[in-house]
Every structure is written in structure tokens, then in C-alpha cells.
Amino acid sequence: MGTNHQSEGNWTFKHAKLKAKIELMQKNQRNLMGEDLDSMSIKELLNLEQQLETALRRLRLKKDKTLQDKNNLLLKEIKGKEKVAEQPRVDQQTQESMVSFQLNLGLASHVTLGLHKSCSLNWAGP
């Protein structure tokens, strides 16, 4: 019986301790939200202000990093889309250059062939 009563007392103590911890956390949360500040001393207010400034600095750093990462991702995406959009234009220019080259090559071979024919017609040989 003694151990059961002792165990019950232990649970009661743990319950009271946890309840006090929860109440303190709720009070701190209210203070961080700017509520229930009247009962706080100057020292407590200064400490709270420092906590809020530190939290705000961390928040801004996180926000800036997140925005920078998002901007970098969007920039990569834009560059990728520009490459894709530029590719057909490059392919078309390459194809036009090839056609132009082939036409020029064809004309050159016709001219060369014509010269050969005229030379062979005019050539009497030895």
C-alpha cells in the first residue's frame, strides 16, 4: 500500500510541476504577443524586447535567404526557357546557312562543270 500511495504522490507532484510549466509558457506567449505587459518590470521588458529583436533578425535572415533562393531558381528557369526559345532560331539559321551553302556549292559545280565542258569542246588535244 505504501508504494501505491507514494506513486500517487509522485504523479500529483509531476502534474503540478507540468501545470506550472504550461502556465509559465502561456504567460510568456502572451508577453511575446504584447499582452499582459503591465505586471512586468523594466528589466523583464528589456529582456523581452531583446528576445523580440533577436527573433525578428532571425526571421528577416530566413526570409531574405528564402527570397534569394526563389530568385535564383526563377532565374535558372528563365535562362532555361530562353535557351529553349533560342534553339529553334539557331536551328533555323543553321538550316538556312546549309541551304545557302548547298545552293552556292551547286552553282559552283555548275559553273565548274560548264567550264570543263567548254574547255573540252575547245580543246583540240595533241
Automatic annotation (TrEMBL):
GO molecular function: DNA-binding transcription factor activity
The protein, known as: K-box domain-containing protein
Domain K-box: 8-102
Pfam families in UniProt: K-box
Gene Ontology, cellular component aspect: nucleus
Superkingdom of this protein's organism: Eukaryota
Coiled-coil positions: 15-69
Keyword Coiled coil: yes
Source organism of the structure: Ambrosia artemisiifolia (Common ragweed)
Keywords linked to the UniProt accession: Coiled coil
